[in-house]
Amino acid sequence: MKLFAKYNRILLLLLLAGLLAIGTSFYYTLSYFLNAKIDEGLREELMEVNDYMHVKNITPAPSDDDNLVVEYKPALRASGKRFYKDTTFYNPRKKITENARYLKTSIVINNKPVQVLILNSKSAQSREVQWIFAAIIIPVIIIFGLLALINRYLLLKLWSPFDQILKHIRALDLNHGSYKDTVTDVEEFRQLNESVKQMTRRIEGDFREVKLFTENASHEMMTPLAIINSKLDTLLQSDTLAEKDSRALRDLYKATTRLNKINQSLLLLVKIDHDLLGEQEWLDLSKLIGQKIENFQELILQRNLSLSFDTDHCRIMGNKYLIDILLNNLFSNAIRHNVEGGQISIKVSHGLLSFENTGLPTPLAEAHIFERFYKDPSSEGIGLGLAIMKQICNKQDCTLRYYFKSPMHGFDIGFKTVEAKQCEYQIDSLSAPL
Questions:
Q1: 65 half-sphere exposure, CB direction, 13 A CA radius
Q2: CB-side neighbour CA atoms (13 Å) of 235
Q3: 197-206 pLDDT tens trace
Q4: What is the DSSP letter of 178?
Q5: What whole-number distance in Å separates Cα of residue 354 and Cα of residue 351?
Q6: pLDDT computed for residue 426 by the predictor
Q7: Which strand (E) or helix (H) includes residue 96?
Q8: How far apart are CA 10 and CA 279, in angstroms?
């Protein structure tokens, strides 16, 4: 939940609770004073009844007030206690049922106890209370609503520099620019902006140094490795070496070759990370796959593998160099980790490239296979091929998924930017030779 939303929700709950408390308290206070006023009228009416009974020795004439009703009933005794209570009654004068306040007591008339019930309608007073209540509460509700809106506007206005700083941090790309400054007159946000700016400067400096060091180290390593490989190759071609020396040199040659591959792969990862491999363009994916099939045809035949290729719409938006590396890795893995006489199945459908091959009868560790330098114990690779594929897919905004459907190991690569156009490559020309 966003900070503003959380704050506004708490504020609205507090305002609502305060409004309910004020409204309830105000309503019951008004009702209390209304009942007190009516009770006073009931007592005055009872005094009139007593005056008529004891002074004039007659029952008082019916009042002209339609809201007032006096009833007499015989009683067992005259206690003199008075009872006040709210009730509803049928008003015979108005011929309607109304809310009322009554006073019940018992007095002596002509030496006989009589119960006197005096009812006073509350309709008129209740309407007054409702009007007074509405006249007070409605402005309070309007004021609370305005306060909430003003508070929301002020918060958005005051916190706008913070949002701007967050946007600049999210948009920060160390390869293509620096942190954009945020102008604000709020001291706290100015300090925050200055702190972020200083921090990003340090990160930019470290990033450039690491980037430069990695590139230079990789380039510097390539030349001596190439010289070592060349010298070792020359020595291995010599007939003067003893068998023991020749075996040691072959081991040394394999080690330097492996070191050279690691160096090239790391250099490639650095270039991919830093977006140093050119722009994107529309590519005929099926055509590229067809070319790779022709390039790897000899290796496929050597392993006696069968290959099937099914494709439809195949133009994608991507970097040609990276897609070429991606396909190379897919073919290399499918051939290297296949079984003798196994299968390779390639399918392109609606921007999804499915690449399957037979191999080990057990699935790979899906949670780790895309980690750098992770490899299956039975593999002789350097553990960077799948990591490079993952990094390429991340940079090309593609999805990459590994799955195992015995006996096939598969990789699904989903391209998001696809042109709905029929592939120009002829599928029939691929299946026949293989």
A1: 14
A2: 18
A3: 899 888 888 8
A4: -
A5: 10
A6: 43
A7: strand 96-109
A8: 49
